[in-house]
Specification:
The chain folds into two domains: about 45 residues; about 300 residues, Orthogonal Bundle (Flavocytochrome C3, Chain A, domain 2). Helix content is about 50%, strand content about 5%. It is built from 23 helices and six strands. The strands form three sheets. It has a two-stranded antiparallel ribbon with strand order 1-2. It has a two-stranded antiparallel ribbon with strand order 3-4. Strands 5-6 form a two-stranded antiparallel sheet. The radius of gyration is 28 Å and the shape is globular. The mean pLDDT is about 95. The structure holds heme C (4 copies). The site of one heme C has 24 residues, from helix 12, helix 14, helix 16 and helix 19.
């Protein structure tokens, strides 16, 4: 200090210089403080300062976006098709082309005609407009599928349920609501417009909780960050009477508990076209399998990895680009784990690859068993001889499908997924042993398996006339679908994005 005062005494200009510098620093600090208070106020008023009032069940996400531009802009990015991890991504992939055995596994069921991997939420409507799975209704009151198939696609679903009643919604034909359900999964699927709190818009989830004597309204905010997804990413079925969408959780959510639920009511989704087994189709039990894995058991929710927080200019918000967490490991896994990106990525791949080893084996054995069961029927086998085989086939494929249809399962719950696949393989081999006995009775000792090495060959083998089906699909996309969209647009129901 002495040195400075001496210096100032010698050259007063230094004193002035220090004074001016301090003055500037104080001024800048003042500016910063003002900006922070302003930003605080901005956050506090974000909710009360809404630019537009959203009323009722509003399926137009672009209108919500005026109030919440950050969430809206990231939500729009579910349109991006720019990411491929080792096994998943947001790019459309023809799964039947990659694994033609699946065509045989689903013979007699619409999945054998058309099946592409999921991409992003904003494609939910476009993709259902382009699949043979929901068939090609020629007029707007046509099915053959019920309107229940729309349930997980759009905020127009809660809007219509509110307008025409839940039971009546499910009773409609699929084609009947084509001009109503036009906007992809959006804000009104997950949020209450007044408070922006997460809300459950799908009755099936609330009803499943009620049947277990649980009140979904008592869920914690962290649980809601999972339950918002459990409205759609779950196992479900349509009741035979009225196509009422129902979650089969009354006995529990494990693969065995759900199977028991279906067995008790003699339920099957379809009869296999080759083996004649009474089959179950697993939908996408992401919630069920995730709940049995290590992260759920530590209290994590889906949003922790699929909708991570982003900080931008002092504002923290949830990234609404729901997709693979591997796209951005720094903002997902690394908020909790200190391992390198590469290591974290490899943990995921290692779990996936190990499960896939068993899955592929099981897939091949299942295809073979269905084909050999057909041979047994062709040779004259009867119901009594085949009963045990068919039951084992149903059980084996249910286990395969439960893991495969839950796309994230092998990471979400690696041990449980591998346990289920192992039991599936065991059941498939038991089915083959039983079947060998039947085939021996009819003098069959050597069997030649058909060539199902491509999607086209497998589809031809199970008797699908794909030329005809694809022509119907093309006509439908060029006639019925544009009519639906045109009418929705005219009535102001189609949101601009
Ligand atoms: C699939 C369900 C889902 C959809 C669709 C969805 N959100 Fe969200 N949103 C969430 C979840 C989960 C959170 C995190 C809530 C929490 O942490 O409590 C959230 C949080 C928010 C928040 C609170 C601040 C923040 O970012 O964490 C706002 C505002 C918001 N969303 C706006 C929107 C808007 C606008 C849309 C439509 C463009 C939308 N959301 C679509 C699930 C959804
Ligand atoms: C209203 C039903 C619905 C809700 C709610 C919902 N999803 Fe989805 N989700 C879908 C559908 C349908 C698809 C397939 C869309 C397509 O590809 O056409 C999908 C696709 C996905 C994908 C694959 C996308 C990709 O790029 O690989 C992920 C991951 C996903 N959802 C996670 C979530 C999470 C996490 C939540 C909760 C925050 C959630 N979903 C809420 C229906 C829903
Ligand atoms: C601990 C992080 C984490 C949590 C929590 C989590 N997931 Fe995932 N999820 C992943 C990872 C990692 C993958 C595999 C991504 C890949 O291979 O690119 C994945 C994959 C998926 C996929 C398949 C994506 C595709 O492209 O096919 C879906 C769907 C999905 N998760 C939904 C959910 C749902 C629903 C929940 C909650 C019930 C959830 N996830 C909870 C990490 C998580
Ligand atoms: C919100 C925090 C959080 C996030 C995000 C998260 N994890 Fe974890 N993870 C945990 C906790 C907690 C455990 C249990 C740790 C323990 O018991 O030592 C765990 C366990 C694991 C394990 C060991 C699993 C086992 O069988 O016990 C692996 C591997 C893992 N995480 C990978 C990932 C990857 C990859 C991601 C990103 C896709 C991720 N985690 C995201 C918190 C998180």
């Amino acid at each position: 200090m002495k040195k400075i005062s001496e210096a100032i005494k010698r050259r007063p200009i230094i004193g002035w210089a220090i004074f001016v510098v301090v003055l500037i620093i104080v001024f800048l600090l003042g500016l910063l403080a003002a900006s922070i208070t302003e930003r605080r106020a901005e956050i506090a008023t974000l909710y009360s300062n809404k630019k537009v009032e959203i009323k009722g069940i509003n399926p137009h996400s672009s209108e919500w976006g005026i109030n919440y531009p950050r969430e809206y802009d990231t939500w729009l990015k579910t349109k991006n098709m720019d990411f491929q991890s080792k096994h998943h991504g947001n790019i459309k992939q023809d799964v039947l082309e990659q694994r033609p055995e699946m065509v045989v596994l689903w013979a007699g069921y619409a999945f054998s005609k058309d099946y592409t991997a999921p991409r992003g939420h904003s494609y939910a409507i476009e993709d259902i407009h382009h699949t043979l799975r929901t068939a090609t209704p020629t007029n707007s009151s046509d099915g053959p599928q019920p309107a229940t198939c729309w349930t997980c696609k759009s905020p127009d679903v809660p809007r219509m349920m509110n307008e025409i009643g839940i039971e009546n919604f499910y009773k409609q034909k699929w084609g009947a609501l084509g001009k109503e359900i036009v906007n992809p999964i959006g804000c009104a699927d997950c949020h209450d417009p007044k408070t922006m709190a997460l809300t459950i818009t799908r009755p099936a989830l609330i009803e499943a909780f009620t049947r277990q004597n649980k009140d979904i309204k008592q869920s914690t905010p962290q649980e809601m960050r999972t339950l918002a997804c459990a409205q759609c990413h779950v196992e479900y079925y349509f009741t035979k009477d009225g196509n009422y969408l129902t979650f089969p959780w009354d006995k529990g959510i494990s693969v065995e508990a759900i199977e028991q639920y279906y067995d008790n009511s003699n339920f099957s989704d379809w009869t296999h076209a080759l083996s004649r087994a009474p089959m179950l189709k697993a939908q996408h039990p992401d919630y069920e399998l995730f709940s049995l894995g290590p992260h759920a058991q530590r209290g994590l929710s889906c949003a922790d990895c699929h909708m991570p927080y982003v900080s931008e200019g002092g504002i923290k918000y949830s990234n609404h680009q729901v997709m693979s967490p591997l796209k951005n490991i720094a903002s997902t896994c690394q908020t909790c784990h200190r391992d390198s990106e590469e290591k974290l990525m490899n943990y995921v791949y290692e779990y996936q690859d190990k499960a896939i080893e068993i899955r592929t084996r099981l897939e091949n054995e299942l295809a073979k068993t269905h084909i050999l069961a057909k041979l047994a029927w062709d040779k004259g086998a009867n119901e009594k001889e085949m009963k045990g085989v068919l039951k084992l086939l149903r059980q084996a494929q249910w286990r395969w499908d439960f893991v495969v249809a839950s796309h994230g399962s092998t990471f979400h719950a690696p041990v449980e997924s591998q346990r289920i696949l192992a039991h599936g393989l065991d059941k498939a081999m038991q089915a083959q042993l039983e079947l060998q006995k039947v085939l021996f009775t009819y003098g069959v000792h050597n069997t030649n398996l058909p060539d199902i090495s491509t999607k086209a060959k497998a589809q031809k083998y199970i008797g699908l006339d794909m030329d005809k089906l694809n022509k119907e699909k093309k006509d439908w996309i060029n006639t019925t679908v544009p009519k639906w969209l045109e009418q929705a647009k005219k009535e102001g129901k189609l949101s601009k994005l």
